Each structure stands twice: as structure tokens, then as C-alpha cells.
Amino acid sequence: RKEVEQDPGPFNVPEGATVAFNCTYSNSASQSFFWYRQDCRKEPKLLMSVYSSGNEDGRFTAQLNRASQYISLLIRDSKLSDSATYLCVVNVASYGKLTFGQGTILTVHP
Amino acid sequence: DTEVTQTPKHLVMGMTNKKSLKCEQHMGHRAMYWYKQKAKKPPELMFVYSYEKLSINESVPSRFSPECPNSSLLNLHLHALQPEDSALYLCASSQDHVLTYEQYFGPGTRLTVT
């Protein structure tokens, strides 16, 4: 089983749609969780950290379920500029190594 | 905008060349990282520096040699690379490497080994 698993997609959605990405992780000792986005041929950029209480940043909502070892990202009112690869990232803080999922490709079309 | 800078943006080198990649961060972070990313794959950790000391080497071949001259700078010296080393090399930094801090990436150096 992979340490971090994501549905690779691709997800093709129209502008204005709501889309949800899911991610599972295998190491119960994982301590911190993030969503990054990566545009084609660019670096990963931090989208948001994910907390047990859930957190929201504008159109983006992230949830963490430690019991099920599951993380989600919800994007509401999708924009063309949301088209990117979304990386689920987990930190097992024993030495700070980030473990990346394979990424989920999102394309938002007019 | 990212506060981690990397130079050069692109590099083409032969298998007998020696070159260096440079990274600088302006956020006062004490941990810095080198990652390698191949097309359509997630980044893979290579090295971690914490408080200017190498703390993690993910079994990287010796043809890659990291150096941390001070808390803001990180270099990656390259020598006798192979074509399969062609990739995007990303530098990242975080406030600390032990605790659960976010990592911020530089724009990367796209390396082609001929």
C-alpha cells in the first residue's frame, strides 16, 4: 500500500462546479497534512494546511479524519485558474520528511 | 510570490561537466531541502539541512554533493551526472525540519544531462 494515495483523475469540470478530492495515508504517526497545487512545469505551492477541526480559505475547504486516515479538499465555484495538479502531502514529523501523493489533475473548462 | 529563489532556471550539462545549483531563502528558515522531480511524478526528497548541518541524505549518489554555506544559502554540486538525472531540481525551506512546519518551494532548476 502506498504511503499517501490519491485518485489521479483527471477531473474535468465546468466553471462554477464544486469538486472534491480525497486522499488516504497509511502511517498513523503522521502529524501534519497539507494540500499543495502544482501548475505545469512550476514548483508546488502551498494551498493550505489541514487541521483536525477542518479549515476553510475562501472557496477551499480541507478536512482531516484521523480515525480513518483520510484527508479531503473541496473546491467550490471552480475557476479556470484552478486548473492544476493537487498534491496531498503528509509529514511524519520524526524527521520532517514530506510524503507526497501522486497528485490529482484538475481541468476546469468554460 | 515565492521567497525561495533558485539559479539557474535551466541548465544543460554534459556527463563530464561540473556545475552547481544555487538556492537562497529570505524567510529566516532554519531547514532547507533539495528535491528531485521527474515528469508526472511527485517530488522526491534528496537532502535535508537543519541549522546548516546535513541531517538527512536519502541515499543519493555521490555525484550529487550538497553544501550549506550559511542559513540562507544552499548549493547542490553536480559532477559526472547521467542522462537519467535530468529532472526538475527543487529547493525548499521551512521554519524547522523536526516540527510540523510547511515547506515553501523555489521555482526550480530544470536540468538536462546530455
User: What amount of the residues of chain B lies in strands?
Assistant: over 45%
- Spans of chain A of 5+ residues with little confidence (pLDDT < 50)? none
**Helical segment count of chain A:** 0
Mean of all residue-level pLDDT scores of chain A = 92
Structural class of chain A: mainly beta
Count of DSSP E strands of chain A? 11
Element layout with pairings:
The complex is a heterodimer of chains A (110) and B (114).
Chain A lengths: L3 E3 L4 E4 L4 E7 L6 E7 L5 E7 L4 E3 L2 E6 L4 E6 L8 E9 L4 E4 L3 E6 L1
Parallel strand pairs in A: 2-11
Antiparallel strand pairs in A: 1-3, 3-8, 4-5, 4-9, 6-7, 7-8, 9-10, 9-11
Chain B lengths: L3 E4 L2 E4 L4 E8 L5 E7 L6 E7 L2 E5 L6 E7 L2 E7 L7 E8 L9 E2 L3 E5 L1
Parallel strand pairs in B: 2-11
Antiparallel strand pairs in B: 1-3, 3-8, 4-5, 4-9, 5-6, 7-8, 9-10, 9-11
Task: Characterise the protein shown here.
The complex is a heterodimer of chains A (110) and B (114). By secondary structure, chain A is mostly beta strands. Chain A is 0% helix and 56% strand. In chain A, the strands form two sheets. In chain A, strands 2, 4, 5, 9, 10 and 11 form a six-stranded mixed beta sheet that branches. Chain B contains no helices and eleven strands. With 114 residues, chain B is mostly beta strands. Chain B has strands at 4-7, 10-13, 18-25, 31-37, 44-50, 53-57, 64-70, 73-79, 87-94, 104-105, 109-113. The chains are: A mainly beta (110), B mainly beta (114). Chains A and B meet through strand 5 and strand 10 of A and strand 9 and strand 10 of B.
What labels would you give this structure?
A: 110 residues; B: 114 residues; mainly beta; seven-stranded mixed β-sheet
Report a brief summary of the structure:
The complex is a heterodimer of chains A (110) and B (114). With 110 residues, chain A is mainly β.
